[in-house]
Amino acid sequence: MATRKKTAKSKTRAALKKSARKVIKLSSARKNAAKNASKSAKNGNGKSSNLPKPSNKPYGQAGLALQGVRILDFTHVQSGPTCTQLLAYMGADVIKVERPGAGDVTRGQLRDVPNADSLYFTMLNGTKRSITIDSKHPKGMEILNRLIKTCDVLVENFAPGALDRMGLTWDYIHKTNPRMIVASVKGFGPGPYEDCKVYENVAQCAGGAASTTGFREGPPLVTGAQIGDSGTGLHLALGIVSALYQRIRTGRGQKVLCAMQDGVLNLARVKLRDQQRLAHGPLTEYSQYSEGVPFGKAVPRAGNDSGGGQPAWLLKCKGWESDPDAYIYFITQAPVWEAISDLIGEPTWKTDPDYATPKARLPRLKKIFARIEEWTVTKTKFEVMDICNAVDIPVGPILSMKEIAEDESLRKTGTVVEVDHPTRGKYLTVGNPIKLSDSPADVRRSPLLGEHTEEILKDVLGYKAAEVAEIKNSGAITPPEKKEKAA
Ligand code: COA
To answer: Quick one: CA dihedral 236, 242, 248, 252, positive or negative?
Structure first.
């Protein structure tokens, strides 16, 4: 027994040494990269001789942008997974840690196919690997420690304090791997609400989006676009990539925090702009102004008024009586006013002092849009789009999700991608919306729960087959019911 223990111990020591050697190898590669980066920074131009020679490989064949970056993905639900999925599309090796037997709660949420991972999960976790680890099990913590040593970034969006309760405090992680970047999504930043759990619509409400969305006469509205969750995930991805870049110079990791309230406010910044403009008079491009309705102390809901400073409105198109999406968004951009006047059959508006200038038009917007609508309603939204685009008038058809799912051009660009899944079959996902000319997006299906556990234990963490068997028996990677059966 004692000898067996000894052998196991020495095997573990050997594995640890091996993974330590890997870390040292990586460290020296990164040290060199840091040296090069600081020299390049001194030169301060794009011609630095310290950069590698420009690759001769054809574009798209020189590896992926984040190749070599390994992410310890402790995320769940939507905000964090959005971030890590994007990093995976860019080439990072994303290892998603999930609770044995349960996994990310979204695997079972809004299920459309019995016994298959939901679209909620599959569309947010593509191109990742899944390992199951019980972080509250001592052996599980040992595995996590190894992951911390070998990964570059830990991403998490647990409720405030959950990571600390696991024992994974910043101090601990930083001591274990000083190069580790620890990136978190929280609902709120430091302040009175920092301990609150937060979901999408809470962030939309607290970030100023809901109070400024909807119609003046109605209640605040949340939007369909997940600006709180996916929006914050995008912010976090930028923070991570920046921290990775800074690490080339400093050699050390740092904390990256994105609060969902901050992320939403960043996306709603034009409304904070308008809040400050209110102090200097009414917001003349809001239709409320042309309707003679006085402004209050806070930015009002503006319905479909443009946020871009150019008067605009949503107009009916042919078929609107039966098709809820037969609408076009029409922007009366000042430089194309003459084209608009000609198009709708009001050529005198080009010179009439009541219509000829943007200022003169402001109190008449309601009448103007009613007249434009008399024209748009005679055409389909796609006809309006074609006619207006030909004369540079900015318009946008209201596309239903059905139309988007069937759009050939979105498929061609890889923005909408069909992938095949072993238990649910084919499904559509959103590919990488960011196109890099030298880094084609790597969009693959989401992993099954724990699909890569053994592969990661062996190939990434260096556990030998006997150790993997020991880990399996320990219960650290198996669901509780299996543990009970084994006992
Ligand atoms: N093994 C063992 N335990 C695990 C585990 C694993 N692999 N992974 C997670 N857990 C545990 C955590 O330790 C925590 O336990 P504790 O509370 O006993 O310490 C628990 O599972 C999950 O934590 P929590 O984050 O509180 O989940 P929740 O379902 O109660 O709350 C949110 C969900 C989204 C409200 C919350 O995580 C949150 O506010 N996150 C930050 C904001 C955010 O991202 N919101 C948007 C989500 S789209």
So the answer is: negative
Q: If you measure from the C-alpha of residue 96 to the centroid of ligand 1, how many angstroms do you get, rounded to a whole number?
A: 14
Residue pointed to by tokens 């400093």: 250
| SS3 at position 428 | strand
Which residue has the CA at smallest separation from atom 31 of ligand 1? 159
| Reported pTM | 0.89
Report pLDDT digits (tens) over 276-287. 999 999 998 888
In degrees, rounded to 5, the angle at the alpha carbon of residue 317 between the alpha carbons of residues 406 and 412 is: 20
d(CA 378, CA 371): 12
Enumerate residue ranges in the chain where pLDDT < 50: 1-27, 29-30, 33-34, 36-44, 485-487
Q: How far apart are the first and last CA of the chain?
A: 21
Which ligand 1 atom minimizes the distance to the CA of 135?
1
The pLDDT of residue 43: 46
Q: CA-CA distance, 413 to 392, in Å (whole number)? A: 24
Q: What is the pLDDT of residue 12?
A: 40
| CA-133 nearest atom, ligand 1 | 7
Answer left, alpha or beta for residue 167, where phi above 0 means left and psi between -120 and 50 means alpha. left
User: Tens digit of pLDDT for each residue in 389-415?
Assistant: 999 999 999 999 999 999 999 999 999
Instruction: Please name the helix (run of DSSP H) or strand (run of DSSP E) that holds residue 420, with its range, or none.
Output: strand 416-421
The residues annotated as belonging to the active site are 229
Ligand 1 pocket, mutate which of 145, 158, 193 (most atoms under 8 A from CB): 158
Q: Which of 163, 197, 258, 264 to mutate to test the pocket of ligand 1 (most atoms within 8 A of CB)?
A: 197
Helices (H) and strands (E) in the chain, counts: 20, 11
Helix (H) or strand (E) holding 469: helix 465-474
Going from the Cα of 104 to the center of ligand 1, the distance in angstroms, rounded, reads 10
Residue with tokens 């330590």: 20
Q: Which atom of ligand 1 is nearest to the CA of 81?
A: 48
Tell me how far the alpha carbon of residue 156 lies from the centroid of ligand 1, in angstroms.
Answer: 9
What is the spatial distance between Cα 276 and Cα 273, in angstroms, rounded to a whole number? 5
DSSP character string of 296-347: -SSPPP-TT--SSSS-EEEEE-TTTTT-TT-EEEEE--GGGHHHHHHHTT-G
Contact 449, 125 (CB under 8 A): no
Measured CA distances, 43 to 36, 47, 48, 243 (Å): 11, 8, 6, 22
Residue showing tokens 């999504």: 185
Dihedral sign, Cα of residue 24, residue 25, residue 30, residue 35: positive
Query: Which of 461, 459, 452 has the alpha carbon at shortest distance from 139?
Result: 461
